[in-house]
Amino acid sequence: MATTLTIDQFDTITNFIYRKTGIRFESKKMYFISKRLNMRMQNLGMDNTLDYIHLLLYNDRFDTEFHNLIDLLTINETYFFRDFNQLQTFAEQCLDEVCKRKAAAGDYKLRLWSAACSSGEEPYTLAIILQEMLDNYRHWEIEIIASDIDRKILNKARKAEYNDRSVREVPPGYFKKYFENITVDGKSCYRLRNTITRMVKFEQVNLSSRDAIRDHLNFDFIFCRNLLIYFDDVSRKNLVDQFYIALNPGGYVFLGSSESVSRISTVFKVKRMNNYLVYYK
Questions:
Q1: Global confidence as pTM
Q2: 83 burial type by CB count under 10 A (0-12 exposed, 13-18 middle, 19+ buried)
Q3: pLDDT tens digits for 112-137?
Q4: CA angle 187-189-191, nearest 5°?
Q5: How far apart are CA 251 and CA 233, in angstroms?
Q6: What's 7-73's CATH class?
Q7: Cα(3)–Cα(9) distance, rounded to whole angstroms?
């Protein structure tokens, strides 16, 4: 039988999640949290909320149950070539600038980080853009790191199999070149060709943990779009400051269209490219 969280129980769980992830759930999310928590309790054969909370806080030695709960609480809505105008600025302005500067110095290494990659549409989009925009693509040593806290969504990303909704914004020429039609469990879907999938390395990373991200360094571009809206001010600033450390001089960070680096931290410089504000180190 479904149980309803008390205010104290909601506070205990959401404060615990905040300490672990930096994600703050407001009181208006109580029904949402309660429903997802009941799903986990049902899967575990538990009917006492206090017992579940005790398990989560004190008997979850390897964070197994914590990650199961987070998998249900995080929203992973994304699609290929999302926010096309921003990607166009990256592809036609920022990428060209960085590559010319690095090539002039004899440096042909290019590193990108999709820091909240969800089911993989964003890092795979970046891989397609690199193949299309770099004239001497094979001369470059390219590494695309794609990270997320959600293990299940990372497994989905590694399969690189997508439905109509995910590919709806892919330009027709790219779609024909990089996707193949397949059938999975009797349903038609689309799989990325390995010329793209082999470019991306997926990792489970908790972005609120400095220990987890401190070895993520020397990136030329960092994408972390539509994640910081779930963080509070302190968590946002901590993460953006870590991104600054992780970037090479002259590197760029891209947030979601409703997010602004300038409102979070003053460490980045800002300039307008292609009628779009971009942030760089």
A1: 0.87
A2: middle
A3: 999 999 999 999 999 999 999 998 89
A4: 140
A5: 24
A6: mainly alpha
A7: 12
β-pair type (247-255, 219-224):
parallel
* pLDDT tens per residue, range 179-212: 999 998 888 999 999 999 999 999 999 998 888 8
Closest-CA residue to 253 (of 112, 78, 91, 144): 112
Listed in order, the ranges of the chain carrying CATH 3.40.50.150 are: 84-280
Distance CA 165, CA 116 (A): 19
DSSP string, 19-71: HHH-B---GGGHHHHHHHHHHHHHHHT---HHHHHHHHHHS-TTSHHHHHHHH
Q: Tell me, what's the pLDDT at 2?
A: 67
Task: Please answer whether residues 49 and 2 qualify as being in contact, where contact means their C-beta atoms are separated by less than 8 angstroms.
Answer: no
**Helix (H, G, I), strand (E, B), or coil: what is residue 268?**
coil
Which helix (H) or strand (E) segment is 249 a member of?
strand 247-255
Tell me how far apart the alpha carbons of residues 66 and 87 are, in angstroms, rounded to a whole number. Answer: 34
Per-residue pLDDT band for 76 (boundaries 50, 70, 90) equals: low
Cβ distance 36 to 72 under 8 Å?
yes
Distance between CA atoms of 244 and 247, rounded to whole angstroms?
5
Does the domain at 84-280 match CATH 3.40.630.30? Answer given as: no
> Residue for token digits 């899967």?
43
- CA-wise closest residue to 240 among 266, 204, 216, 203: 266
Residue 218 falls in which region: left (phi positive, over 0), alpha (psi -120 to 50) or beta? left
Kindly give the pairing relationship between strand 276-280 and strand 247-255: antiparallel
